[in-house]
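Data availability (excerpt). The following record was deposited with the supplementary files.
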Amino acid sequence: MSKVVTQRKVSCWPQVGPPIHPILAPSVLSADFSRLGSELRSIERAGSRWVHLDVMDNHFVPNLTFGPPVVKCLRKVSKRLFFDAHLMTENPAGLVEAFAAAGAQNLTFHVEVGTLRLS
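Predicted structure:
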């Protein structure tokens, strides 16, 4: 007697559209800040297409990192990496234009900051 084994795809999330491929975005927060340009080039050489920029203002969260001027300098180092900026700030709407002008291509912020008015 032989057994028939069937395979079932188990997923917590419904699959809608094409298959989802994970995006790896190394964070510069774990980089040596005295060598940010070199660290960014290392991320590129490792094959990453994205880099994650954790922006903290020491108000919304208790840490302080960097702002648009640093992102602008990093953009000069890499034209190929996709810059994903996570704004952990009290007033992210007030920073959108500055980060976009500096070279950030994706901006993520927290709904807990309250009302956002983007004009």
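Summary of structural features: The chain has a mean pLDDT of 86.
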